[in-house]
Design a protein that fits this description.
- The chain has 109 residues and is mainly beta.
- It has a four-stranded mixed beta sheet, with no helix packed on it. Strands 5-4-7-8 form a four-stranded antiparallel beta sheet, with no helix packed on it.
- It has strands at residues 19-26, 29-32, 40-48, 57-60, 63-67, 76-83, 86-91, 103-108.
- A hairpin with a 2-residue loop joins strand 4 and strand 5.
- It has one domain: Cupredoxins -  blue copper proteins (Immunoglobulin-like, Sandwich).
């Protein structure tokens, strides 16, 4: 498995990053730089602005278990997905972070 540079917004071999959305993660919330989504390719830059390790996972139509590796405090890493019309869950899969509030739902229309 290849690793991606934490400072790179373009995953190797992706061809296109599409729309870039920043996902700031802290204890215990996620805030996205965009709240409006249309079908297409998106690169979510997960930035750990907190003190604990976090990660970012996206699940929804056509996207299952797409996630970043665990991100250390102060670091960031991208995850690129193709979003279709529908509802998606964006959350932190680390420990019980999702249950503690690191869970968003976005609608692509």
């Amino acid at each position: 498995m290849s690793s991606r540079a934490a400072t790179s917004a373009a995953p190797a071999g992706s061809g296109s990053t599409g729309t870039v959305v920043t996902a700031n993660e802290s204890e215990f919330k996620i805030s996205l730089s965009s709240t409006t989504f249309t079908p297409g390719r998106y690169t979510f830059i997960a930035k750990n602005v907190g003190q604990a390790p976090h990660a970012l996972e996206i699940d929804g139509p056509g996207v299952s278990d797409r996630k970043t590796p665990t991100i250390s405090p102060g670091a960031s890493t991208p995850v690129t997905v193709a979003l279709q019309k529908g509802s998606y869950e964006v959350y932190c899969p680390v420990d019980s972070h999702k249950a503690m509030g690191m869970d968003l739902h976005i609608t692509v229309s």
